[in-house]
TrEMBL record:
InterPro entries: Aminoacid_DH-like_N_sf, Glu/Leu/Phe/Val/Trp_DH, Glu/Leu/Phe/Val/Trp_DH_C, Glu/Leu/Phe/Val/Trp_DH_dimer, Glu/Leu/Phe/Val_DH_AS, Glu_DH, Glu_Leu_Phe_Val_DH, NAD(P)-bd_dom_sf. Belongs to the Glu/Leu/Phe/Val dehydrogenases family. It catalyses: L-glutamate + NADP(+) + H2O = 2-oxoglutarate + NH4(+) + NADPH + H(+). Catalyzes the reversible oxidative deamination of glutamate to alpha-ketoglutarate and ammonia. This is Glutamate dehydrogenase. It comes from Thalassotalea marina. The keyword Transmembrane does not apply. The active site is at 127 (proton donor). GO terms for molecular function: glutamate dehydrogenase (NADP+) activity; nucleotide binding. PANTHER family: NADP-SPECIFIC GLUTAMATE DEHYDROGENASE 1-RELATED (PTHR43571:SF1). One of its GO terms (cellular component) is cytosol.
Amino acid sequence: MNSPYVKNTVNKIKGLYQHQSEYLQVVDELIDYSDIDEELTQALEQNNGLERLLQPDRIISFQVAWLDDNNQVQVNQGWRVQHANLIGPYKGGLRFHPSVNESVLKFLALEQTFKNALTGLPIGGAKGGANFDPKGKSSREIMRFCQAFMTELYRHIGPNTDVPAGDINVGTREIGYLFGQYRRLQNQFSGALTGKELDFGGSQVRVESTGYGVVYFIENVLERFQQKLSNMSLAISGCGNVALHVAEKAIEQGAKVVTLSNSDGCLSREQGLSAKLVAQLLQSKERPNLKEVAKQFGAKWHQGAKPWQQNVDIAVPCATQNELNGDDAKVLLTNKVQYIFEGANMPCTSDAVALFEQSNSIFSPAKVVNCGGVIASAFEMGQNAMFYPESYQTVDEKLKKTMRQIHTHCMENNESSYLIGANSFALKKLIHVMNLQGV
Ligand SMILES: NC(=O)C1=CN([C@@H]2O[C@H](COP(=O)(O)OP(=O)(O)OC[C@H]3O[C@@H](n4cnc5c(N)ncnc54)[C@H](O)[C@@H]3O)[C@@H](O)[C@H]2O)C=CC1
Ligand SMILES: O=C(O)CCC(=O)C(=O)O
């Protein structure tokens, strides 16, 4: 039972932002699934900390005007939501997708702040992006868009201020264009972005780190329950950076990966997808046609379907927010899914989360499952500051160790729910730091 202060604060925020459904979904989840005891209530109330912590420090919103290949001026909207820099510079990815809006970026920035607090590394939380759709755009158009975006953003970021990285549709190529423009405008070579190519300050493992980190977290959980990944079957959604690196590492560890998907449908193979299929998708420079890939590798193609009808031990949604709803959760639970690991940010709707949390299956939230990416980014920031790159093996070992520590943080805070354990750990830490730093 939460105190009147907590309830009133949440109600005030709901009143202020009633049209921002994704943002309010995270606010509700953080409060509904945290152990807020008397001591934490006092800490939250002391400097009106909860109200300050749930809302971003600032939102930068700007117009991005760019020239398409026909010399026509196109206009998009760009944002950077700087949520909190209590424990380090603002840090979080950039997303280019037509569905991007202030609510989506506010949910992502709030989640990022809690995620980053869990890593134990000195990074605050932020998120940004634009409602730009890269589908069908030429490489030159993508470059000009990135340059126009950075021409607005550069004055708000920097290695000690705010360090963006990639997210949906922002990969190594886009980070290269964004970094090039930042370097020109600032006349400065600094680690103001992560996810860079290795040849100009990128870190080993950053590309693979989110997906590999998901698998390292899964292995920690399975070890706790005395099970092995090599005995497990997985349904994975998406076929981007996160999904493919989860698939690659899981197959390498002997697991059976049964599905991949995109917004058109789902590819499945009961005996498991081959490492070769995943490698081909990872190497593809263009957006892959999954239907064709299914044909080529003897897999089934299910037009318009999601992967959640499959009978598997582990479900790993790795595409986008709210892609797995209550009905999908019911099917998975009826089929006796044992574990659900959120690879994407907030892929499960509130009713799906409630069903998983009430069930005997084990649910692990995005903020602990997919934090491998931002962990490797923080390592990249460290390497840039030292002007000294680290080896693949060193970064990979540090990533594994950090994922294990995060698993321990969850366990120490709540043994029966990873969600409550994670939220409680981060909430306590952030509010403690906020109180130490005054108003
Ligand atoms: N890239 C990173 O380092 C990190 C990414 N994430 C999260 O992981 C998720 C995926 O990101 P990335 O793999 O980086 O993006 P990406 O752009 O590489 O891939 C996204 C994939 O999702 C698919 N997709 C989009 N909407 C879909 C839908 N409705 N149904 C099925 N598939 C759909 C796309 O076809 C694409 O294959 C996002 O939620 C992102 O915020 C989280 C932590 C770090
Ligand atoms: O590497 C980063 O800074 C951002 C990663 C990210 O966007 C995420 O964790 O959702």
